Amino acid sequence: MGIWQAFRMAVKSIFSNKVRSFLTMLGVIIGVAAVITAVAFAQGSTKQITDRISQLGTELIQVNIFGRNTNRDLTWETLSEFASDNADVIAAVAPQVTGNMTVKAGRNSLSTTIRGTTYDYSVINSQGVSEGRYILDIDSDLRQKVAVIGSRIKDKLFENENPIGKTIKVGEQIFTVVGILEELEDGAENTKDDQIIIPVSTAQRITRNSAIRNYSFLATSPENVKEAMERISEFLTDVYGNENMFRVTNSAQMLDTLNSVTETMMTVLGGIAAISLLVGGIGIMNIMLVSVTERTREIGIRKAVGAKRRNILTQFLIEALLITGLGGAFGLIIGCTAIWGIGKAGLVPAVYSPLWMALSFGISLLVGVIFGMFPANKASKLDPIMALRHE
Questions:
Q1: Which residues have C-beta within 8 Å of that of residue 391, sequence separation ≥ 6?
Q2: What long-range pairs does 268-275 form, CB within 8 A, spacing at least 24?
Q3: Which of 197, 191, 149, 195 lies closest to 49 in space, CA to CA?
Q4: pTM, entire model
Q5: What residues have CB less than 8 Å from 194, skipping those under 6 apart?
Q6: ∠ CA(154), CA(160), CA(166), 5° rounding?
Q7: What is the structure's pLDDT at 180?
């Protein structure tokens, strides 16, 4: 008996027991779909975060101050003077005081991020204004109550009106809108378009947060990032006398850490989802053993008319491979549909990984060979006389 004939007989056997064959495939379908969907979700989340970090540029350096009362020896003026003294490697520095507050304009209101900073933040963050002006250093010096609002704030509070020159209520304070930030992320919630920029000195007062714990630095070039970070670290160590009181990081380091975490996460998710394939393989073996028992007389007749052991073994192996192959194909279709749905819903970008798709499908076929071998081998070893007597 040739391979083609064995294939036809395996197909006939599968379609003669459609419900049982489908239930046998179900474990493989779920396993393959789970593997590629889980990995795609992890990769999509990583891409979303990576894109945002990459927008900041590799020249960005973030400084975080830890602990209570850690700013007693460091003022914004001191740090600004340090940046000026190291202008060969530091192009700009901006403090950040942030808080989440309710903002009102007329009858409209929403909760958003209030960010107190200086003019240099627009340079560091690569986000200027589309209308009006940005906050100026003199605004901070005089503690002016002026604000630059994001495009989402404009749409929610002022709708079709021009907000320049109008007032908004931030907490209990009245601010005058002097500018509108450039729209960078389609006016989405919790993005750069969903914030209000005010002078840092004013932010310290309304958030009741006199300590500045976050600073953004911009290196003069990617090549000078390392040197700038070393100088900043040395300066802060001299101020605090303890390297554990602060952290100096840049976007390239953040990307490296993120990629490392993502690889681990994908491996874990893939491993967990692959358990479904193992369960599916056990199900295939059980159903195939039942099939061998049900077809004992058929096997006996075939062996009696000249079928060899390898013919029986080939038939049952092909049957197991067909079940897992079809299950893997359906799993790929369902998984790709789920990925498309995730992307369409805007949860994370849709990322299709040919490597993981091929790997999960290949594993499903391997499961068919491994778990189909035992029942196939059992069927091929049946004694034809005993098989013909089987009721």
A1: none
A2: 269/38, 269/39, 269/41, 269/42, 270/35, 270/38, 270/39, 270/356, 272/38, 273/31, 273/34, 273/35, 273/37, 273/38, 273/39, 274/31, 274/35, 274/360, 274/363, 275/31
A3: 191
A4: 0.56
A5: 112, 113, 150, 152, 153, 187, 188
A6: 55
A7: 93
Tell me: pLDDT of 201 over 80: yes
Listed in sequence order, the DSSP H helices in the chain are 3-16, 18-56, 76-85, 120-125, 137-141, 151-157, 200-206, 225-240, 251-294, 296-304, 309-345, 354-380, 384-389
Q: Which two tokens stand for residue 144?
A: 């002016």
Residue 132 pairs in a beta bridge with 179
Q: How far apart are CA 242 and CA 365, in angstroms?
A: 57
pLDDT value at 176 more than 80? yes
Q: What is the pLDDT of residue 179?
A: 93
User: Cα–chain-centroid distance for residue 256?
Assistant: 14
CA dist 235 and 247 (Å) reads 12
